[in-house]
Design goal:
- The protein is mostly helical and 110 residues long.
- It has a single domain, classed as ACP-like (Non-ribosomal Peptide Synthetase Peptidyl Carrier Protein, Chain A, Orthogonal Bundle).
- The chain contains 5 helices and no strands.
- The termini are far apart.
- 20% of the residues are buried.
Length: 110
C-alpha cells in the first residue's frame, strides 16, 4: 500500500479532476462542484462518460475502470474519492506538470 496523500495533494487532485470534468462535459463549464452529478447536472451521457474515464485513466495512470466500479461514480466527489483510493493503493499516480500541460494545453504548467 502506498503512502497516504497530503492535504495539498488531495486538494490538487480535487482541483485537477473538477477542471477535467468541466472541460470534457458535453457543455464545457468552469466552477464544477464536488456535489455536481455527472449525468443530469453536468449533462454526461454514456459516450462522454467513456471519454472522461479514458482521460482519467490516462492522466492518473490507472488501469481500465470496470463497469462494476464505474456505476458507483455518480458525482464529481465520487470520482475524486475513486481516484484518491486508487492512488493510495498504488494503482495510480499523481500527474506531473508535463502531463497536465498536455491535457489542459498550457505550456507553463497547471
Amino acid at each position: 500500500m502506498a503512502e497516504a496523500m497530503t492535504d495539498e495533494q488531495t486538494g490538487f487532485l480535487d482541483e485537477t479532476l473538477r477542471r477535467l470534468v468541466g472541460m470534457l462535459a458535453p457543455v464545457p463549464r468552469s466552477g464544477v462542484l464536488p456535489s455536481d452529478t455527472l449525468i443530469g447536472g453536468l449533462g454526461y451521457d454514456s459516450l462522454s462518460l467513456m471519454e472522461l474515464a479514458f482521460n482519467v485513466e490516462d492522466l492518473f495512470g490507472l488501469d481500465s475502470i470496470s463497469m462494476e466500479r464505474s456505476v458507483a461514480i455518480k458525482t464529481v466527489a465520487d470520482l475524486t474519492a475513486f481516484v484518491t483510493d486508487e492512488i493510495a493503493e498504488g494503482r495510480g499516480t499523481m500527474p506531473d506538470s508535463e502531463a497536465l500541460a498536455e491535457k489542459f494545453g498550457e505550456a507553463g504548467g497547471y
